[in-house]
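for the writeup, i need someone to sanity check this before i put it in the appendix. the sequnce is what the collaborator sent (i think, or maybe the updated version? ugh). structure was predicted straight from it, no edits. if anything looks off just tell me and ill rerun, i have time this weekend
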Amino acid sequence: MEKKFKRTLITTALPYANGPVHIGHLAGVYVPADIYARYMRLKGEDVIMIGGSDEHGVPITIKARAEGVTPQDIVDRYHNIIKESMKGLGISFDIYSRTTSEIHHETASEFFRHLYDKGEFVEKTSMQPYDEVAGEFLADRYVTGTCPHCGNERAYGDQCEACGTSLNATDLINPRSALTDSEVVMRETKHWFLPLDKWEGELSKWILEGHKEWKTNVYGQCKSWIDLGLQPRAVSRDLKWGVPVPVEGAEGKVLYVWFDAPIGYISNTKELLPDSWEKYWKDPETRIINFIGKDNIVFHCIVFPAMMMAYGDGFQLPDNVPANEFLNLEGDKISTSRNWAVWLHEYLVDFPGKQDVLRYVLTANAPETKDNDFTWSDFQARNNNELVAILGNFVNRAIVLTHKYFEGKVPAAGELTEVDTQLYADINAAKVSLSNNLDTFHFREALKDAMEIARIGNRYLQETEPWKVAKTGDMDRVATVMNVALQICGNIAVAFEPFLPFMSEKLRDMLNMGQISWDALGGDAIIETGAAIKPAQLLFEKIEDEAIEAQKQRLERIKKENQVKNFKAEPQLPNVEFDTFMKADLRVGTVLECKKVPKADKLLQFLIDDGMGTRTIVSGIAKYYNPEDLVGKQVCFIANLAPRKLKGIESQGMILSAENADGSLVVMGPTAPVVPGAQVK
């Protein structure tokens, strides 16, 4: 029998404050967490949702150094952007705080010290890279050198971005400090480790035996880690930015960000509820739900629970960790460093008033069991074909017809027909499925259940055709139909509140609905008979091609910028003797004619004035040029290349082109006009 809880604590992964929030974060964590929190509130449950920014760690120090500002400047900037954009999307945190707060530093320090005093850590010394000029130990990212795998001379100590190989700083050839460009030396340093192996048995029993109901991606990743055997994990590192290690002799050391950050859930709860926070963390009657992305599964299912097991004092472990997979963008992995993302704060500016459209699309495409893809074409289609054509269309028709036939007042329903009673049965069936899917964190399916209520409404109006019945004079039947239609509108307002809160609020205002509860869903008297309703307003509007094309072009620009930024020239070919080079006769010619070669997508056929007459040259640049644009241009070509046939055409030379970072070809030619046949020297 499923255990009943008195209250629910929802935590959301802390977004890292070295950049804004993007749609991958939203689909993976924050939209599903908000759906669940709003659902629980509608049910009248005692629930709080805790969030905040993760503001420590090496990437923030790197960004600060690159911009010539302090780490605090960086986290202040992005914390504010994240907090305001989350609010703009309607993510209903009870608190959104940060790990640079005083209460967090106190809480994290106390947590470490408690474990330290209990003897829960293992002390280890190791050799770590050190910069003698800067006088500090170096994080792997601050060490550069030659990759031992591909020879890239600008590899980082954690990864070679040329070949993608994961590295340690000690793997690099000729390692140097990224801070001062001085030679890196190895020095001994001491750190504290949490012995995860000590808690392996308890973790295995708790997860593998006690939580087989968890999502398969979560359960499977946990099982894989446990089966491989857990190892001690460092909880401190040599760094100036972070929560100082509260132990004598630990100067210059801070808590490792993975240890520090999850304690933020506790410190943020303390900040929200200073007098009652413990009942949400230590009372067995509290259900804790961690909403995270798949890259945080290990930390929330193994590491943080091990920390709480070691701490003791009644800390409760999460009841569920419904982690999602990754959301891609237009078929490519979302990347902050490559700017390949849809940023929330920019979306709210580009699409004002369309918060619910993004919430809807991200939920409909939620990567719940596998990675999924966001495309702007799908975004437009779902808005126009579902939100506008199904949901918005039904509500608009129901309210417009009520004003047309009953002066905007809810008419009394007469005797219900079989069609009417079947409709309420269908809505209640949708409610059962909707509730079950929300209870089990299947939000994508739950959204389909909610949309089914709107579909039911559209089918009902099409079947009953009140506009035709009105022409017969049977206004009692029209009144019944319109009463039922308005009750469906009220049901839609309730069913969609967790998913589309802005739409729900607007609809409730039009219907003059008061406070709503989940219990009301499925009812036939949500809207009071005789109540005046406001004139219809469009809940959603079509998104035109121009708005979508602008977003696609933005991504195309970003893709090209990345290609240029990441372009690496091919290695130089072996040297050739000067006399060998001089055998190639390079000349300039003027294009007299240019046309596509039939049945050859890549080939263009040129007629060139070479100063000695004309010649035909076939070139594989059709993908990058319109033939008519090249007529009259001057191009460089190899004149004495042996002729060869391409698609049955004898090509008498080769036009010279350069390959760009994106693979496109650019025809080479003189910067000023020259006589045809001039030699290139």
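The domain at 122-192 is CATH 2.170.220.10 (Methionyl-trna Synthetase; domain 2). The chain has a mean pLDDT of 94.
thx in advance!!
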